[in-house]
Amino acid sequence: MTGMNVLLIAAGDRAQVEPLSALAWGLGEAGHTATVAAPSRFAVLTDGIGVAFAGLDDSAFIIREELGRAGVGGSRSPYLTEPDLHRWLDGLTGLTNIEPDVVVFTRDAVGASSVADRLGVPAIPAQVVPTAPATAAFAALNAPLWTPHTLNRWTWSNTDAAPHPWRSVLARWRIKSLGLRAEEAPFSVLALERGVLSAWSRHLLPAPPDWPSSAAPLGFWTLPAGVGLTLPADVVGYLSAGDRPVLIVLDDLCRSDAIHTARAIDQSLRATHERGLLMVDRSVLESGPVTDRLYVVDRIHLSAVMPRVSAVIHRGGIDAIAAALIVGVPQLVYPAAEAQRFWAERLTLLGVAPEPLDRLAPRRLADALRRSIARGPAAEHLRGVLRDEDGVGACIARLEQAHIATR
After folding, report:
1. Beta bridge partners of 38
2. By three-state DSSP, how is residue 6 classified?
3. Which residues contact 368 (CB under 8 A, 6 or more apart)?
């Protein structure tokens, strides 16, 4: 078939953007054209892999950083004001100039499917954690922990509620800027009608029995070894200067938490005789050595660094989970949101991670790190199981089918 022009739109955090960047790379290798559209700060995730990037407004992140500098815990509570939403939607309007044949979007990318509606092309939902369709197998991720099993399916009735506060803004934008009717099809409806691209392995979470085949997990979307990703010279120097370090991915830390957290991590590393590589946002801590056992780095490609570490501590995003599982690195999860806790429980069930942490107290972190490293054989076994999966290839095949169906 002739090459497709695919637009991939994500919002939220790195765990949503990095898988789409890997998919975009795969599309390019398959003879298609792809553009990743996401908050501007994630442009680094497409550096060096030949993927086009369209930066969108990231005001919510800027507000979060300002709250952090003021000592407010904004890292776990990003805010979106109405002016922010207008800037985001203006950015989406500009994406129509890309003239894609297919639009792929995550649920947090409010208004993204409207770009496809304006151009009359398929809008295909994608998810990095189960958000649709509904299932009786487990409750929706935002459901109360005490929800009885019999009410599991009912909890999914609220999964499209996120954009409701902005319905009037979205409606006016669709009418005035895009020339469309006011109502946008909900994510869950599109997932049932067109299928949903589920960016995880069936070995991590198999499809629930009541899901259609069009929602089944396709496999992880990661960059393969040998893509040519490079690490900064200072990071390479640190990695080469001793034993493999523990990678700590906490790039949502705010400034008020950072010093205390770095101190706790350093104490736990000393107690376990490990070295550490801490990945945080550059606005929080300066890159470079913090102590003789802890080195700070800004955002780097997880696929590039993961083969060179002994274990990884992270929030529970699918990007870090996938990168670690594919190379057999044991994990320890410190979740801050429902989706992260969901994946943390799955990793514990599979035996590749201990129970998730609820806080980074030095002694507790050291004990959990020891238990994580001891799970190396289980992580290595799962690596072998995943070796034959090709999530990116399976996803591209689905997109090609959707494109052919509209011609």
Report:
1. 55
2. strand
3. 332, 354, 355, 357
Whether residues 243 and 255 fall in one domain: yes
Domain residues for the domain of 58 are 5-220+389-405
228 within some domain = no
Record the tokens describing residue 269, joined without a space. Answer: 């590393």
Residues, the chain, total? Answer: 407
Rg of the Cα trace of the chain?
Answer: 21
Q: Which residues make Cβ contacts (< 8 Å) with residue 339, sequence separation at least 6? A: 129, 141, 316
CATH of the domain at 377: 3.40.50.2000
List the strands of the sheet with 246-249, edge to edge: 288-289, 294-297, 276-279, 246-249, 311-314, 331-333
Mean pLDDT is lowest, of 65-74, 90-99, 308-317, 358-367, for 65-74
Q: How many domains does the chain have?
A: 2
- Rounded Cα distance between 369 and 314, Å, is 12
Distance, CA of 225 to CA of 33 (rounded, Å): 21
What pTM value is reported for the model? 0.92
Q: What is the mean pLDDT of the chain?
A: 90
For 378-393, the pLDDT digits (tens) are 999 999 999 999 999 9
**Could you give the 3-state DSSP secondary structure of residue 106?**
strand
pLDDT band at residue 76 under the 50/70/90 scheme = very low
CB count within 10 Å of CB 183 equals: 10
